[in-house]
Design brief:
Blueprint (H helix, E strand, L loop, with lengths): L1 E2 L3 H12 L6 E4 L14 E2 L6 H15 L1 H5 L10 E5 L2 H16 L5 E3 L1 H7 L10 E5 L3 E2 L2 H14 L3 E4 L6 H7 L6 E2 L21 E6 L19 E6 L4
Parallel strand pairs: 1-2, 1-9, 2-8
Antiparallel strand pairs: 3-7, 4-6, 5-6, 10-11
Helix pairs in contact: 1-6
């Protein structure tokens, strides 16, 4: 039994079915993808400082590249690359160490100079930058399409995907399916992951969501001083 119908929950349902599980149930309180997935930018990046995350995203990337073949749903995956802009030598050193570890795993990231930054993104003002890293294999896709694709595949394999079903107690779920395992795939379902006598898991981190307004540009394509400032709101989301 999976609680939460975002990218994590529907992916879990899809992969359980793919591995031969016959009784998979996903419960979503609202509509599929209505939670933290609806706030996601859709970025797919391989540049992580720790090996575990890097290896996980390598596997994810391989699946996203053939997602339509696997699920029948296109996700608009664009491999445009990720460019990290670094403002201090300390950051450059840290990212250089990360790039060394990433390349050992076969990830084609690299430390690039500011001339390369200007070539990649001419609009960027580089006067206050110390360096950058870039990986051409990274990009972005449509999170809602990923959710629909995984849900479609899971249903096709026999999973029950039920929306508009808010779970308020793990006891009620276990009474209905006493031999089931519960997987909490939504940050708001944290209390439901605790059975009697168990310690409550740590709360999920809060990540900022930055909403960018249309910014006025100078004739050279750079942001005009005094342009609209972005607004920031807090979002509780699953670790990524």
């Amino acid at each position: 039994m999976i609680i939460g119908g975002g990218c994590v929950g529907t992916s879990t349902a899809h992969h359980l079915i793919a591995r031969g599980c016959k009784d998979v149930v996903l419960l979503e309180a609202e509509t599929l993808g209505a939670g933290s997935t609806s706030k996601a930018a859709g970025g797919i990046r391989l540049q992580h400082a720790d090996e575990l995350n890097a290896r996980m995203v390598q596997r994810s990337l391989a699946e996203f590249l053939r997602f339509e073949e696997l699920t029948g749903v296109p996700i608009g995956f664009k491999q445009v690359g990720y460019l990290f802009l670094l403002s201090s030598e300390e950051d450059v050193d840290a990212f250089r160490r990360a790039v060394t570890a990433q390349r050992a795993l076969g990830i084609p990231s690299e430390v690039v100079d500011l001339d390369t930054v200007r070539r990649l993104v001419p609009q960027v003002e580089t006067g206050d930058l110390a360096g950058a890293t870039f990986c051409p294999s990274e990009g972005y896709a449509t999170p809602e399409a990923v959710v629909q694709g995984y849900a479609k595949s899971a249903r096709r394999g026999g999973a029950t995907v039920q929306v508009g079903c808010r779970v308020t107690s793990n006891r009620s779920c276990l009474r209905r399916r006493p031999s089931s395992s519960m997987w909490r795939a939504a940050p708001t379902a944290s209390p439901l992951a605790v059975l009697p006598g168990q310690e409550r898991p740590r709360p999920d981190p809060v990540h900022p969501v930055i909403k960018l307004a249309t910014l006025p540009l100078t004739g050279s394509g750079r942001v005009r001083p005094g342009g609209a400032a972005p607004s920031v709101e807090a979002l509780t989301s699953s670790p990524s």
